[in-house]
What does this fold into?
Amino acid sequence: MMENKKALISIKNLKMYFPIKKGLFGRQVSYVKAVDDVSFEIMKGETLGLVGESGCGKTTTGRTIIKLYEPTSGEIIYDGVDIAKFTPNQMLPYRKKMQMIFQDPYASLNPRMTVADIIGEAIDIHKLMTGKERMERIHYLLNVVGLNSEHANRYPHEFSGGQRQRIGIARALAVQPEFIICDEPISALDVSIQAQVVNMLEDLQRDFGLTYLFIAHDLSMVKHISNRVGVMYLGKMVELAESNELYTKPLHPYTQALLSAIPIPDPDEAMSKKRIVLEGEIPSPIDPPPGCRFKGRCKYAKPICSEQDPVFKDVGGGHMVACHLY
Amino acid sequence: MERLLDIKNLKTSFFTHVGEVKAVRGVSFHLDKGEALGIVGESGSGKSITMMSVMRLLADNGKIVDGEIWFDGRDLASLSENEMQKIRGNEIGMIFQDPMTSLNPVLTVGDQLTEPLLKHKKMPKEEAYKRAVEMLRLVGIPSPEKRIKQYPHEFSGGMRQRVMIAMALINEPKLLIADEPTTALDVTIQAQILELMKDLKSKINTSIILITHDLGVVADVCNRINVMYGGLIVETGKTSDIFYNPKHPYTWGLLRSVPNPKTLVKERLKPIDGQPPDLLKPPAGCPFAPRCEYAMRVCMTHMPPLFEVGENHKAACWLNHPDAPKVEAPVGRRHE
It folds into this structure.
């Protein structure tokens, strides 16, 4: 069903390097290669999940796409236009189309602003509405996310975690975006509240025709919400496929290990399951050695893995993988 | 099985400027030697405060109002602070949620690891260091002789949590309390830590109490589960009973709100609507009644007792009363 859909965003060879500076004069000694040559597409109306361990570059990828960072190189093609080199002024119309929901509902709302001002801020910046119309829009948005109009004049501290995340979502919706980056939007919430927020995100997608990039480390939730899922490891995209395909037939040894580590809420299966326990930890992204980034922890590693970077290629039916085994 | 811990009618409150917050409102359970018990529930359900009461590590405004905590023949609730200090880190080990802040940044890992040995066992320093190296090796830290001289900032999150586990287990405690030990960690590291805890349980026969909100984690590690809500145990039973034959609507709600990674058909999640109760003014009836789709009139006014619903399986819900309407559980059957 996705084949006939158009790509809303195409990422081509995106690189985001952070310089490491040392000494009195800020001599640049090396780079943290947080995102290193990543390419993928996000289709109109789909949810693309992005998973991986902390430090794999999934959040940096999201933030670079929305241009919270200046990408080192590569293209970010939004609806046919490459925005990678755009200046902040040129970006302004695109900021209305792309919005973000953040992980921490406690830190991402200004405690000194009322809910109405938090939601209305973007409306003011883009000069979309004023006065009564603006207030009506805010009340409408509060209702959309399951809060009510009386909440408009309250402050963030009066709300629970789940309610704050709803305010964050209302703020993202205020400018009628097409594309929303959800960066770990539920990991700070309780299990029963997580399901409320996920269901709401699904409803909003249906009602407003939104496209999501859903970044998370909870693999079961990502599978639930995403059409396709990408797996990142140390700045590289190692596998990307339709979500059922990825979870039933993972190809990359890292994806296999990652999926086998998911704790399954079913005691019989937990008992019978064989887990691939990865030895060691994710290596440092500062000047990583050439070849496959995963080779040090991979039980299938061959000599070629240390010599050549595996190419990220389609192995059939849109299932992309970067591994010398395929 | 020999009984290690027996908690009877524990009530813990916090006295704040707005009034008494009844965090734990009458909790009774036991733990046998060599057993792993899971305590699940959402934030504010009282799961951590129950165990903080056992360790007597409550904040200054917190107080055990009523109840007994029998641990190996002594009532911990009535011990003095001096006597408690001989138990903490010696007979009861504890692992906290956040490995980043639970270690002292200005002491080496070795100094912190040997502290319980020097303090409780009066072991000579050299011997204590040898034992600490051994312990680090047991929890899977490579080249422990070198690592023991390093400071916590030189360790990654997963490594620090291993150090915490090593520290909690170094005196071979009878009981290990782990409060969300893997919540701050990545799934691959979580898998390593869970395997390690299971392994250590069989090797040194420590009893474990695992506090978590992750049903996947308890399914993997625990023999028995207590489900807590609003400062009370609402259901208790064997792990298989809780997952396959749950008898409390809150347990149903918890099980239904997590997606099963095995299903291929996309089903809508079924969240529990509403918010947990305010324990400043705890409700007169069942604390879950306002969010419960099966709530009856009696639920609003009368607290349900823990009904016996099977062998060692109890649930505090009026639906289990013989006169109540029969409701089929929407979850719980084994997946074929």
